[in-house]
Write a structure and sequence with these properties.
The chain is built from 7 helices and 10 strands. The protein is of the alpha+beta class. Helix 1 runs antiparallel to helix 2 and helix 5 crosses helix 6.
């Protein structure tokens, strides 16, 4: 099950810097608020649990998280945020899947369209690229464990695959309905992961050269900086050093 995974280069997430913490927290609070609409209990709401875990990783306080859950569940008059996904293409025919939480869809679609168009891409219709992605659970280790350490625990709990990446990281892939079973099994076995969440994984990758890779990275950065955007996924296989 070992191997090298091109799609590991596809998703980009900027490290949260102190100067951007307020903006990051705003996005995380929106994500929690929207996820809590379908239930305020993280144990019974995988989307909420993933949002809470992400917020805790970013050092958000429990009080702030709980208030966001209360707003989303209607306990304290939640804001009118809703989830929306935009699909389109960037330069080089690279597919973009952009997940947002917004209280103004007209504003959000305008900003996303402008960013794609500026870089030579275009906004697509619903379903135009989503068929190129599968939603999966991903658990990442920074090389502090081996595949052998992880194999028995993760596969027994329902993991689909274990990949060793070119940079030495190990990525465990799970079906979304078994994601938390695998996470729980890892915790019980004392195996600490660096990051875990539910992501969009492309089924087909597009190979692009160095110059195009730089353009794609810049475009992803521009889209990620939009206030309403939570996550950006592409099917680009980067060639950058």
């Amino acid at each position: 099950m070992a191997g090298h995974s091109k799609w590991a280069n596809i998703r980009f997430r900027k490290a949260a810097q102190d100067s951007r913490r307020g903006k990051l927290f705003s996005k995380l609070i929106r994500e929690i608020t929207v996820a809590a609409r379908t239930g305020p209990d993280p144990d019974g709401n995988p989307a909420l649990r993933a949002a809470v875990d992400k917020a805790l990783t970013a050092n958000m306080s429990r009080d702030v998280i709980n208030r966001a859950i209360q707003r989303g569940s209607g306990e304290s008059g939640g804001e009118g945020y809703q989830d929306v996904v935009y699909e389109g293409y960037g330069p080089g025919g690279v597919a973009f899947l952009i997940e947002c939480s917004t209280d103004n869809r007209n504003r959000t679609v305008s900003e996303v369209r402008h960013a794609l168009t500026k870089y030579g891409g275009n906004l697509g219709t619903e379903g135009s690229v989503s068929y190129l992605f599968n939603r999966v659970g991903l658990i990442q280790f920074a090389g502090n464990v081996s595949e052998e350490d992880l194999f028995d625990v993760t596969i027994a709990a329902g993991a689909e695959d274990i990949d060793t990446l070119d940079d030495g990281r190990i990525m465990v892939t799970t079906p979304i309905d078994l994601f938390y079973e695998v996470v729980t099994a890892l915790k019980e076995a004392g195996l600490e992961y660096d990051e875990a969440g539910i992501e969009q994984r492309p089924t087909v990758s597009v190979d692009i050269d160095d110059e195009m890779s730089e353009r794609i990275v810049n475009l992803v950065g521009v889209i990620e900086d939009l206030d309403d955007v939570r996550d950006v996924y592409t099917n680009a296989s980067l060639q950058m050093e």
